[in-house]
TrEMBL record:
This is Membrane transport protein MMPL domain-containing protein. InterPro entries: MMPL_dom, Mycobact_MmpL. Its main location: membrane. Keywords: Cell membrane, Membrane, Transmembrane, Transmembrane helix. The lineage of its organism: Bacteria, Bacillati, Actinomycetota, Actinomycetes, Micrococcales. Residues 11-20 have a biased composition (Polar residues).
């Protein structure tokens, strides 16, 4: 290992990983866009489970309402990635066009695999806090809601 604890690639440039020349940004980008897409759908599904007794009908409604937001959030990322080769940071420059496939894969997963998994798991997915029809939406109460209200009332909102 070179001095200072930095790993070097075969070409002699510093690397974040001792075992590969590939930057870790791909995994971060795929994980971030995938998490965003999944949260959009899963949170809407949870809301629908509080309104609908049939979990498959709740999933269809969640897909109808949150489904358009999933590709919309990915469409904002994908066109920007091919511009990265002009970046001044080498590790960012490497990403470029190849990284545009990460959000596309996350989108396909969120629209094809995740709904199938949600349909198979049903309400049990949310154990031990399983949402039932008529349950109170707790989003408007608690410490996080009070914090959000305080931020919204802050000096920037006037």
């Amino acid at each position: 290992m070179p001095s200072g604890g930095a790993h070097r690639t075969r070409s002699g440039t510093p690397s974040a990983s001792p075992s590969t020349d590939r930057p870790w940004h791909h995994e971060r980008l795929a994980f971030g866009t995938g998490t965003n897409s999944a949260l959009l759908l899963v949170s809407r599904y949870r809301e629908e489970l509080r309104r609908t007794p049939d979990h498959r009908l709740a999933l269809r409604r969640a897909l109808r309402h949150a489904g358009p937001a999933v590709p919309a959030s990915n469409v904002t990322v994908v066109p920007a990635l091919p511009t990265l080769p002009v970046a001044s940071i080498p590790s960012t420059r490497i990403l470029g066009v190849a990284a545009a496939t990460d959000p596309v894969c996350a989108l396909l997963f969120a629209l094809l695999v995740l709904p199938a998994a949600l349909a198979a798991c049903g309400r049990g997915l949310f154990w031990p806090f399983v949402p039932h029809v008529g349950d109170v939406d707790r989003a408007g109460i608690g410490g996080w809601h009070r914090l959000a209200r305080g931020v919204a009332r802050g000096p920037c909102s006037r």
